[in-house]
């Protein structure tokens, strides 16, 4: 009898279990059973409670700090390798530590490269991720990387708003490429904020390049952390005559005083995905699920069919 390729199995790390359940449901199966044994000192051990020998498995988990999220992913990959899984695909909706993608001053690490090597050493045979902080991080891997764009979620939502005088904005110079891609898809104008940082997460000065008078502005970024940049940019644009300011950011880290800043800012709405669990509710924060996107791509990967249609920017 010819060898029958078994159906894949889907598992999730602790933090991403809710998203994992949504992805599994969209895929059409139950989330696999993983048990975590925990020791008194904080050490833990994942255990697959079902056979995965000879199967393709997908392990879902964002690797944002704390470092436990990354460690869970590494341990689960290693356990799968030692349990003779045929293919081990790390599904990482948010690839954490990606802001350290280069040496921007002496004697600092390139954490994004280090983590890529750790994932490969653990046994990952493929990576599926979304909106990397820097596209070139794909080159840190020697394994296939499917880099998805959340624009496939955000563009339909923005079109549904039917905003007149729409203008896309980048909150910094580094995001100008992303802003231009959105403006091309939406046939809108572009403005860019120029900012100077005193240190990480602290902005010393911000200036606006372009005209936002009587415009409905949409700020576009890959992540929002303390929300300092987004809220300062929104307030600046309203001062310069904008009709409204929204923001779309793929990954809602929302640390520190982020929620308070968003509530007090001139932002009308912040739209994020559920790549990272949102810790608090806010009338200003709208969450679009990326579960269907990942489930579709995972099915295509398993069936060896093209995912080119998912590379829309």
UniProtKB/TrEMBL annotation:
It catalyses: D-ribose 5-phosphate + ATP = 5-phospho-alpha-D-ribose 1-diphosphate + AMP + H(+). GO terms for biological process: 5-phosphoribose 1-diphosphate biosynthetic process; purine nucleotide biosynthetic process; ribonucleoside monophosphate biosynthetic process. It holds the Pfam family Pribosyltran_N. Its EC number is 2.7.6.1. One of its GO terms (molecular function) is kinase activity. Residues 9-123 form the Ribose-phosphate pyrophosphokinase N-terminal domain. SMART domains: Pribosyltran_N. It comes from the Bacteria. GO terms for cellular component: cytoplasm; ribose phosphate diphosphokinase complex. Gene3D superfamilies: 3.40.50.2020. The keyword Magnesium applies. Keywords: ATP-binding, Cytoplasm, Kinase, Magnesium, Metal-binding, Nucleotide biosynthesis, Nucleotide-binding, Transferase. The keyword Cytoplasm applies. This is ribose-phosphate diphosphokinase.
């Amino acid at each position: 009898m010819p060898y029958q390729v078994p159906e894949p199995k889907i598992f999730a790390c602790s933090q991403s279990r809710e998203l994992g359940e949504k992805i599994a449901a969209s895929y059409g199966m139950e989330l696999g059973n993983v048990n975590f044994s925990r020791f008194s000192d904080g050490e833990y051990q994942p255990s697959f409670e079902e056979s995965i020998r000879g199967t393709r498995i997908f392990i879902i988990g964002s690797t944002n700090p704390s470092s436990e999220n990354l460690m869970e992913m590494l341990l689960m990959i290693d356990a799968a390798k030692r349990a003779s899984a045929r293919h081990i695909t790390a599904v990482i909706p948010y690839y954490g530590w990606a802001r350290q993608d280069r040496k921007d001053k002496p004697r600092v690490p390139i954490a994004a490269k280090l983590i890529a090597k750790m994932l490969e050493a653990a046994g990952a045979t493929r990576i599926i991720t979304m909106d990397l902080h820097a596209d070139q991080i794909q080159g840190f891997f020697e394994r296939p990387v499917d880099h998805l764009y959340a624009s496939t979620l955000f563009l339909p939502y923005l079109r549904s708003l039917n905003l007149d005088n729409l203008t896309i904005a980048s909150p910094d110079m580094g995001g100008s490429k992303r802003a231009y891609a959105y403006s091309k898809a939406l046939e809108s104008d572009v403005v860019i904020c120029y900012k100077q940082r005193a240190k990480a997460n602290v902005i010393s000065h911000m200036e606006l390049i372009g005209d936002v008078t009587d415009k409905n502005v949409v700020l576009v970024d890959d992540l929002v952390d303390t929300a300092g940049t987004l809220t300062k940019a929104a307030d600046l644009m309203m001062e310069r005559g904008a009709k409204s300011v929204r923001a779309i950011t793929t990954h809602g880290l929302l640390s520190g005083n982020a929620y308070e800043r968003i509530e007090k800012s001139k932002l009308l709405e912040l739209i994020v995905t559920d790549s990272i669990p949102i810790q608090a509710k806010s009338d200003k924060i709208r969450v679009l699920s990326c579960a269907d996107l990942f489930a579709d791509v995972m099915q295509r990967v398993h069936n060896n069919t093209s995912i080119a249609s998912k590379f829309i920017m």
